[in-house]
Amino acid sequence: MTETGNQDRPAVRVTGLWKTFGEQVAVSGIDLDLPAGRFIGLVGPNGAGKTTTLSMITGLLRPDAGTVEIAGREVWQDPVDVKSRIGVLPEGLRLFERLTGRELLSYLGRLRGIPAAEVERRADQLLDVLDLLGAQNKLIVDYSTGMRKKIGLAAALLHNPEVLFLDEPFEGVDPVSAQNIRGVLERYTASGATVIFSSHVMELVESLCDWVAVMATGRIRAHGPLAEVRGEADSLQHAFLELVGAGAGAGPDDRLDWLGGDRDR
Ligand SMILES: Nc1ncnc2c1ncn2[C@@H]1O[C@H](COP(=O)(O)OP(=O)(O)OP(=O)(O)O)[C@@H](O)[C@H]1O
């Protein structure tokens, strides 16, 4: 069995993960196994700790305590090896603004040690599938928000990683490109790879993911197969609101009694 095809070992194993920023506890001792070969959604309200968690898992932010294993390797003991096995599309992605999209892929491909001809072959296909061929010779500084997401995704996929981490991958992406991205990701997970993505858009998570983890105030509130986490609720959105304790008091109340209505007051 190939390592990528090892479905018994979790893609990611997080144990006792902690992070504080001054007085603020951002991630509060998380234990979590994320299964391999699944499309996994990490959801939670603003400030829940999703980005902090993903940053620690992907070797971008050192935890205060705890360990992270990806495909059986400890991220913070062997970050270079782990980074060769993962692809990351982080929040607030920084790109080389003065390269064209095509140059970025060529450069990153060579940095990853992929032979030049193979880099060009993969870049051609990724640019085509993501509808970026027309913009391949444009400088990245001139890309739109959605185009930046798409070139970032191409860069994250170029080395055919075992596990792909995506922070809000569909933000700013048009519906046609979103459909193409879905197709790429579905094909990728069908081959045994794992996608872990964070999003606030519950309909999207519900339609894409087969496994979810719900975070709130630095803790995991629920995790497991989508149907299990959704439980009796009629949608993931409702289950989510229950889980994060936003069911009551989330509707309109009298706190904004000045908004709208009589403007003569
Ligand atoms: N660099 C930092 N310095 C200080 N506090 C931080 C820092 N990064 C995150 N935090 C705090 O940690 C908590 C978790 O933030 P995080 O960005 O991980 O949440 P999130 O779930 O990704 O939120 P969102 O959905 O809004 O992106 C928040 O209270 C945030 O203010």
UniProtKB/TrEMBL annotation:
It is found in: Cell membrane. Residues 12-242 form the ABC transporter domain. Keywords: Antibiotic resistance, ATP-binding, Nucleotide-binding, Transport. GO terms for molecular function: ATP binding; ATP hydrolysis activity. GO terms for biological process: response to antibiotic. It comes from the Bacteria. It is a peripheral membrane protein. PROSITE patterns: ABC_TRANSPORTER_2. GO terms for cellular component: plasma membrane. CDD domains: ABC_DR_subfamily_A. This is ABC-2 type transport system ATP-binding protein.
